[in-house]
Design a protein that fits this description.
Elements (H helix, E strand, L loop, with lengths): L5 E6 L2 E5 L1 H22 L5 H32 L4 E7 L2 E6 L6 H30 L5 H21 L7 H14 L2 H28 L3 H31 L4 H4 L13 H10 L6 E5 L2 E6 L1 H5 L11 H4 L1 E2 L5 E2 L5 H11 L3 E6 L2 E7 H16 L1
Parallel strand pairs: 2-3, 8-9
Antiparallel strand pairs: 1-2, 3-4, 5-6, 6-7, 9-10
Helix pairs in contact: 1-2, 2-3, 2-4, 3-4, 3-5, 5-6, 6-7, 7-13
Bound molecules: zinc ion.
The site of zinc ion has 5 residues, from helix 2.
């Protein structure tokens, strides 16, 4: 996530990054504040004043957002959860933790810290409006401050909606986790609530579109879609973590895989394994010695008319570090390798001997089976 984010600064050891998409929202906020909101509430002021107010409000609003994320991070670090960084992006800010909180109690406090900060800021800005209001001619300052108080209040309340991955959804997950002791089923329930909120926001967005509120409607639909996707993917990654925890390649590989000899022709390979067995990735073995593998890519590089006269031994891919893995490699490491290299099929090799084959399909099937087992 956020591969294009650039580092802005470091605060208290936390790296603050900005994703290019943030510029869009920053510009949109400044534009709507300077052209609509402030001209409405302070009609007599000069456009330059409106622009200055808008810029000040935008900067302070995003600083507030940063404070919200920093609160999550400070509490996380205090409770032993390492923090990767904070990234500002299209839909606000996100504190990326290096690992998931190890207990429901930790999760609860980390989740609550952000909204607590936003409530505090809302209250603080509201207090400042009273102080500033006492000074003559301070209307622009008071209006900016009350806007900031309102936005921080909205930020706190919106984040407390019990829908994962919002903070309220994390509090909900912590509660369910604490009650049942099962973090996976707690995550699933919390993710469902996130899905519901996502659909509700998309529905509200569609209604707004029908009423002619184009920008607001599109915005609600985008946030809804984002929450929907985030809820789904965080549940999926949680499921994968729980299912693959303490599992190694050896546990999930296919033992006794189909193999072929180098002397057979490509036509035989196609007929006997690809068509008859439905398998394309096949280790090539001669006299018990593993030589390499055949797969669809190799086959597609050779004209069909030569399949009958070409032997597997002439074209197969030799055994190398890329198409093989050891049996004791943790599944999590293999998953990381799959997502990095896009290679999905591996021969499992021990002491130069083939002991199995493992593919991404095997992992997904195992994941689906674990999920079904949870339903029982
Ligand atoms: Zn938060």
């Amino acid at each position: 996530m956020f591969a294009n984010a650039t580092k802005l600064c470091t605060i208290n050891g936390f790296t603050i990054r900005v994703d290019p998409s943030w510029l869009v929202i920053a510009a949109l906020v400044t534009w709507s504040l300077s052209q609509q909101y402030f001209p409405n509430v302070l009609p007599d002021a000069h456009p330059n004043t409106h622009m200055t107010m808008a810029l000040a409000a935008m900067v302070c609003f995003f600083t507030s957002l940063l404070a919200h994320e920093l609160a999550h991070c400070v509490v996380a670090r205090r409770l032993g959860v390492p923090v990767k960084n904070i990234t500002l992006f299209l839909f606000g800010g996100v504190a990326e933790l290096e690992t998931e909180p190890q207990s429901a109690v930790v999760e609860f406090w980390v989740a609550l810290a952000g909204p607590a900060m936003s409530f505090t800021l809302a209250f603080g800005f509201w207090g400042l409006t009273i102080v500033a209001g006492a000074a003559p001619g301070a209307d622009p300052v008071v209006l900016v401050l009350s806007y900031l108080a309102l936005m921080n209040l909205i930020l706190a309340l919106f984040n407390l909606i019990p829908a994962f991955p919002l903070d309220g959804g994390r509090v909900l997950r912590a509660y369910l986790w604490h009650r049942s002791g099962n973090s996976l089923s707690a995550t699933r329930t919390a993710a469902k609530s996130g899905g519901i909120l996502g659909y509700v926001l998309i529905g509200l967005g569609v209604l707004a579109l029908f009423r002619g509120a184009l920008v607001a409607g599109l915005w609600q639909m985008m946030i809804g879609g984002f929450i929907l996707m985030a809820a789904r993917s965080s549940y999926q990654s949680h499921l994968a973590r729980a299912a693959f925890d303490h599992k190694a390649v050896r546990d999930l590989m296919e033992r006794d895989p189909i193999t072929i000899g180098p002397e057979i022709t490509l036509a035989d390979y196609v007929n006997r394994t690809v068509l008859a067995q439905g398998v394309t990735f096949v280790p090539v073995v001669e006299d018990g010695v593993l030589l390499g593998h055949m797969d669809r890519n190799v086959l597609s590089g050779i004209d069909r008319e030569h399949w009958g006269s070409t032997q597997v031994g002439d074209v197969f891919v030799g055994l190398n570090g890329e198409n093989s893995t050891g049996p004791n490699v943790p599944i999590q490491d293999l998953m990381a390798r799959i997502s990095k290299t896009n290679r999905r099929k591996f021969m499992v090799v021990q002491n130069h001997n083939l002991i199995g084959v493992i593919t991404l399909t095997d992992l997904i099937q195992y994941l689906q089976a674990s999920e079904r087992a949870m339903d029982l």
